[in-house]
Amino acid sequence: xxxxxxxxxxxxxxxxxxxxxxxxxxxxxxxxxxxxxxxxxxxxxxxxxxxxxxxxxxxxxxxxxxxxxxxxxxxxxxxxxxxxxxxxxxxxxxxxxxxxxxxxxxxxxxxxxxxxxxxxxxxxxxxxxxxxxxxxxxxxxxxxxxxxxxxxxxxxxxxxxxxxxxxxxxxxxxxxxxxxxxxxxxxxxxxxxxxxxxxxxxxxxxxxxxxxxxxxxxxxxxx
Length: 223
Ligand code: GAR
Prior knowledge:
- By secondary structure, the chain is α/β, with parallel strands linked by helices.
- The protein folds into two domains: 1-104, Rossmann fold, CATH 3.40.50; 113-136 and 154-223, Formyl transferase, N-terminal domain (Rossmann fold).
- Helices cover 30% and strands 27% of the residues.
- It has helices spanning 15-25, 45-51, 67-79, 97-102, 123-129, 165-188; strands at 4-10, 31-38, 56-58, 85-88, 107-111, 134-141, 151-158, 192-195, 198-201, 204-205, 210-213, 216-218.
- The protein has a nine-stranded mixed beta sheet, with helices on one face. Strands 8-9-10 form a three-stranded antiparallel beta sheet.
- Strand 8 and strand 9 form a beta hairpin.
- The protein is globular, with a radius of gyration of 17 Å.
- Bound molecules: glycinamide ribonucleotide.
């Protein structure tokens, strides 16, 4: 069977992209990365892609008048690769309904909070302001609302009394690099699916997102 392919969308530094590149190289993810696409020409992640000889494409958001025309250009570019999966790795744009419908059930995103808490920006600051004891990150299938859609896996970290926004962000980001390649590998291996808006892992409905906590994977039956 032909090898599966992934297209990764970024806007910034691309540390999640790097974790995914590393997981592909380590054969944890059995797929190739056809392209990395950025909405900004200055995204540092583009350089990470180029260093690995991965197609690095800029579709500059400043050159399009509205979301619909931008997303049409994005759809046309992605369609040339016919990817099995689209991975949003710090892609900081809201996607149109047209885009999401076009690639239905095959877009994953990572967001730095325990969804449904703290959608949008400044999630670490919001967790500190709300005096949360636990914070983390979520990998989810993308639906039409911002940072929404069925959650696949979450990583949880305790919030420490000494935490600043930066220290909390760093611990969460470190775990993003664990759970995102894991979820992508499940999808590529055909273990992870979205059916009727429910997440299936190994043909079983996940009643709750899988949980990565204290270096262990906990599935819904167990927590
Ligand atoms: C990550 O923390 C990711 O969860 C977040 O952007 C950062 C990108 O970092 N994504 C969102 O906030 C999406 N709503 P990276 O470029 O180093 O991977």
